[in-house]
Amino acid sequence: MTAWLDQKLEARGLERADLFIWPLGMAVAALWALPFVWMVSTSFKFPGDVMTKDIEWLPHRITLNNYIKVFDYPVIRWGFNSVVQATVSTFLCVLFGAMAGYALARMRFPGRDTLFYVFLASLMIPTEVSVIPLLLGFVKIGWASSYQALILPSIGNVFSVYIFRQFFLSFPKELEEAAKMDGAGPFNLFFRIALPLARAPAIAASVIIFTLNWNNFLWPLLVTFDESMKTLPVGIAAFTPVVGTQTQIEGYSVAMAAVTILSIPSLLLFCFLQRYFIQGLSQGSVKQ
Amino acid sequence: MTMAANMDASGALGAERYETDRAGYLLVAFFAIPFFLFNILPVLFGVYVSFTRWSIVGSPKWVGLENFSKAFSDQWVAVAFRNVFLYGLVIVPCVTGLGLLFALFVNKRYPLSGLARTLFFAPTVVSATVIGLVWVWMLDTQYGLVNYYLSFLGFDDIPWLTSTRWSLIGVSIASVWWDLGLAFVLFLAALQDIPGEIIDAARVDGANRWQRFKHVILPHLRPVISMVVTLQLISTLRIFSQVYVMTNGGPASSSSSPIHYIYNLAIVRNLFGYAAAVSLLLFALILAITVVQRFLLRERA
């Protein structure tokens, strides 16, 4: 009997200890997901069923009312702002990052390496440090609480340049040379030959940078003075008992409905493009 | 951090003659211009701002080093930096240790390990608002899930977020849940780089699990561990969003952090010059840690 078991395990490259480690590890993984389960479960409960002495994982009756109540707040406007902010700045950051990464990897010009060192060294500057002067600057030029203010500071994310430079360093020379022979200029070369082949780094950079931008908190919090320019994370943060007052009025069920809405885009993106997330992140440290 | 290691891969421009690609400047410019305007210039501008008294309306007034001398005698600066030290003490070992454990588990090809990988990483992709609100509810003193299950173990209700004694721990728990994903992924990538044959060979030689970990796996992981610790330390020094959402630094500043104090100075008290000066102090601390880590890595290599 035990010999049979050992053989079975051996075939999978496992040992007896794994019989304990596997269920334990999976239990921890399930535990790790519990806050999400609790969030969704609470969001469907009647307010009266939320604060109960006994925990009810599966609500005995459910309602969509909490989700409807969330829309009493300008959530659609916040969502629109978030989508504009995150998509535009991600698109520009990835496109410009690809152009810069290509030039830094494939072209030769004086100052090229210095420039790259400057980009890398800037990773040591936490964005939080420059946020106060940046805010002063935007206020002085009259751009506070605007889309420019939400978008522009996120374009210069060096991660994008880095990931494309790494990719283009190992780009086959022959492709470029063939195109050069046909008389293609550098811009043609980049847009017609190089960029279409850089799908993998483009997706990796896009999902990671989009997630960072979608979740960006401190800067949108500082730079949006009126309710109508807030982004989703900043607007919904006011559902906390400490920061805002909404939870005291509406209770946790509405707050959980709000954060469920907020987490859906990130979680969906992650589930479908997990591979790119993990590849991209493990390629280098990311500035969060 | 890994970026630095790869820096020389392209080969610096040698002494040989080459034709300058003028188009290169143009291609880089699209990125470089917003980068310098919005990432570099504000840092330099911040140095100037830190020597002034400046409220958001009105014009700056040069005050020399006043802001810095004020910072060194400001008890709330001391509290914020002490708190961030405590945050580091709790969060960094938890994230590093658990991240490594989880990565070791997922790295073995168990059934469903793909699912486990997804679950371990998922919290990292959601925003601070989600993390904060979910954990405010989880850690609710009377009705929270955490206290509910702790009561079975005989614990009294812990006022996680509403007492000066526990608030920092409460915020740390949420932070570990949020931050672990990056450490986990970096460890996983490093583990997958270790050739399977080495581990198999050790096993054939009769090395048990612990010996294999200690003598084969761990030496391979040293650089990654050092990187994860540094990254997590720096990200903990910058802790803000979850503090803002969960406790707003309270009660009585017991969970505040330097960035949270800077936020209050600027937005609530309209002291932009002073806020910029405290930002620079934090920057100096982060820079010092980065330099020390680089130095230690080089020593070992």
Describe this structure in words.
- The complex is a heterodimer of chains A (288) and B (301).
- By secondary structure, chain A is mostly helical.
- Chain A has 2 domains: 2-68, no CATH class; 74-282, MetI-like fold.
- Chain A is 69% helix and 0% strand.
- Chain A contains 16 helices and no strands.
- Chain A has helices at 2-11, 18-43, 65-70, 75-106, 112-121, 127-140, 147-151, 158-169, 173-181, 186-197, 199-215, 218-223, 232-237, 246-250, 252-272, 274-282.
- The longest helix of chain A is centred in the first third of the chain and has 32 residues, at 75-106.
- The radius of gyration of chain A is 25 Å and the shape is flat.
- Chain B is mostly helical and 301 residues long.
- Chain B has one domain: MetI-like (MetI-like fold), CATH 1.10.3720.
- Chain B has 13 helices and 2 strands.
- In chain B, α9 (196-204) runs antiparallel to α10 (209-237).
- The longest helix of chain B has 33 residues, at 75-107.
- The two termini of chain B are 15 Å apart.
- Residues 1-16 of chain B have low confidence and may be disordered.
Task: Kindly summarize this structure in a few lines.
The complex is a heterodimer of chains A (288) and B (301). Chain A is mostly helical. In chain A, 69% of the residues lie in helices and 0% in strands.
User: Greatest contact pair?
Assistant: A-B, 118 and 111 residues
- Please give the count of helices of chain B: 13
Distance between the termini of chain A: 53 Å
- What is the H/E order of chain B? HHEEHHHHHHHHHHH
Number of H/I helices of chain A: 16
Tell me the number of structural domains of chain A. Answer: 2
CATH class of the largest domain in chain A: Mainly Alpha
Name of the CATH architecture of chain B: Orthogonal Bundle
Question: What sort of overall outline of chain A do the alpha carbons produce when their principal axes are compared?
Answer: flat
**Tally of individual domains of chain B:** 1
> What Rg of chain B is obtained from the alpha carbons, in whole angstroms?
24 Å
Percent in strands of chain A: under 5%
Overall body shape of chain B: globular
| Mean pLDDT reading of chain B | 89
Q: Considering the protein shown, what is the CATH homologous superfamily of the largest domain in chain A?
A: MetI-like
Strand content of chain B: under 5%
Structural class of chain A: mainly alpha
Main sheet attributes: strand count, strand direction, barrel closure of chain B: 2 strands, antiparallel
